Amino acid sequence: MVPLEVAGADLGDVEVTLHSRKYYPNWDMTRFQYKVVTDRDRTSPDAWILEIGDCILDEAVNVWASSKFTWVDEPFRGLRFEITKTNQTFYLWLTGPWDAGSVGGAVVFDDDDEALFVGEVSGPFCSGSSISIDVIGDANVAFPPLGGPGTYPVSDGTRLLITSTSAGWTVTHTLGLSIPPTASQEVVSRILRLMYTPYEAVAGTTTVNVSYALVIEEEDLSGLPEGSYRIDITYTASTD
Known about the structure:
By secondary structure, this protein is mainly beta. Helix content is 3%, strand content 51%. The chain is built from one helix and 16 strands. The protein has a five-stranded antiparallel beta sheet with strand order 5-6-4-8-9, with no helix packed on it. Strands 10, 11, 12, 14 and 15 form a five-stranded antiparallel beta sheet that branches. The protein has a four-stranded antiparallel beta sheet with strand order 1-2-3-7, with no helix packed on it. Residues 1-12 have low confidence and may be disordered.
């Protein structure tokens, strides 16, 4: 824990401390608990500000579970929490897993021309992002028997679960083909259609559904002799 200690001759001592940080996998949320303590014989600040890095989008902050706050841009992008007691607890809930690191912290005294006392606290850290992708449910799908040109959709698709500590990620895929010797890899790759449901690449956990279909034209049939066809699809989630 890295406290922010502010001392002023007429303003008193203020200590902002990250009391605990815990990730709840069932909810896919991280809770930051802060203690703000002011000497009882000194003037209590009006608010304190926690720096929030650009990798954390507004929607990653759970407004309903967190202590009441307002977004501010000065002295840095962050959350302003109003202080009403000399010993007060504040909660910040973020979607996804977040580590703690050194970020900016400040206290505000509105009666003193909004004097700011800036230092460092432990908070949600943007440096070094992580991302993972998991296939949920049955990873195997089967196409209906082919009877000539036409569209052959699969009734069951694939559900992808992407967990990232930063926004702006993308999902891509590659194909691995195991087909009859006289079949055309170019034709097989072309007739396979993958459709991703629209998604927003935000920090936290995002579900992406993928559906499949074979779209076959008359000229494709020569490259699709009878036999056993297997297509392995590898999905990759990556950040910029």
